[in-house]
Amino acid sequence: MFKKIIFMGLFFMVLNAHFIAAAEQVVVLPNGLTVLVEEDHRFPLVAIRLYVHAGSAYETDEQAGISHLLEHMVFKGTKKRKPGQIAREVESVGGYINAATSFDYTVYSVDMPDRYWKLGLDIVQDMVFGSIFDPEELAQEKNVVLAELERGEDNPGQKLFKLIQSRVWAGLPYERPIIGFKQTVNKFTGQDLKNYIHKLYQPRNMLLVVCGNVDRKEVMSEANKLFGELENTGILDVVQKCDLRNGETEMGRNGDGEKWRNRVVLERGPWKKVYLNMALPIPGLRSADGPALEVLAYALGGDMSSVLYRKFKYELQLVDDISCSALCWRGQGCFILTSCWILIKWSSSGRSLFRKLQVLLRLICHRK
Fold first, then answer.
1. Using 50, 70 and 90 to split pLDDT, how confident is the model at 349?
2. CA distances from 201 to 31, 129, 193, 233, 239 (A)
């Protein structure tokens, strides 16, 4: 009986996957823009996402933080809409709008009731390609970003991650924080933002996704109307990769002129606990090892039932939290263990367990 239940469950999963695949279509417009439409008529909702290969890994040292600042500025007025009007139009019909910047991409998100999906698509196109970058609005938004940057300096988790990325990815664009630095953010002008869009926001460098209670043909027609006139303006940059076999980047060596080796960095702060991160470089997104490392990270420290969480949190009661992640970006990755230790227990037994965790990381990430 139990086997029959499992079989029927698998059968309906496969059947459901078949119908989902049948309702999904990917089309590349003549200008190179990839459009994915998935019809889902179960709910009167539509989700719209515009992904652009234009994250912090595509910036130069002088541009550090420009992707993130641009994500802020697209809400500050366009040729058709005044500052604040974009959010008002979306929220007035019960919608939601947001944007986010990562290392490899920036994404612009709009969720709308289905009868307003055309408005949502128009707003995404307008905010990304119609922004005017008013100098006063830009100055105000720089202050917002700088305040966000300063708050991060008070967060031990963010400080530790910055230390990790600057060493594990030394010499690669991933070593810089996505938010940038005070000196770079302060220098950006509206023309810098326009030049950045002109260089990287090309149709062949973008993916438009529309999912929900829509008609595929109508969406394709509207997408072609709004985005079809965009032009590709030049050659796109490729994210630099690191050769893990000899510990050197393609440029020859990592940022401080040394090959990869064990490093321990101590950062003191006004905290009542011990925050410990350990990390190793791993291959990027396109590596065949990526999925296995992600599964391993989840088994070790992906949730409250994982091996390390049960051992260190429940059984030994040494930590407030412990987790593992395999971060696989397009050009490079990082296997990272994060933990927050109870101070008094770190002093008594944390150091010996720290050494055991070091051995564990070496074993699971060893590459012949």
1. low
2. 12, 9, 11, 9, 16
d(CA 313, CA 322): 8
Question: What are the contacts of 247-255 at 24+ separation with CB within 8 A?
Answer: 249/171, 249/172, 251/171, 253/171, 254/170, 254/171, 254/172, 255/166, 255/170, 255/171, 255/175
Please, what is the angle between helix 117-129 and helix 216-227, to 10°?
Answer: 20
- Report the sign of the C-alpha dihedral through residues 9, 10, 14, 20, in that order: positive
Catalytic residue, chosen from 71, 89, 137, 175, is 71
Helix (H) or strand (E) segment spanning residue 57: none
- When mean pLDDT is compared across 25-34, 118-127, 164-173, the lowest value belongs to 164-173
Reduced to 3 states (helix: H, G, I; strand: E, B; else coil), residue 12 is helix
Percent of the residues in the chain that have a pLDDT greater than 90, as a whole number: 59
**CATH architecture designation of domain 2-227:** 2-Layer Sandwich (3.30)
pLDDT at 12 over 90: no
Please give the class, per CATH, of domain 248-364: alpha beta
| Residue 246 buriedness (CB in 10 A; 0-12 / 13-18 / 19+) | exposed
71 flagged as catalytic = yes
Summarize pLDDT for 181-229 with one digit per residue, the tens: 999 999 999 999 999 999 999 999 999 999 999 999 999 999 999 999 9
Contact 249, 240 (CB under 8 A): yes
Domain boundaries, the chain: 2-227, 248-364
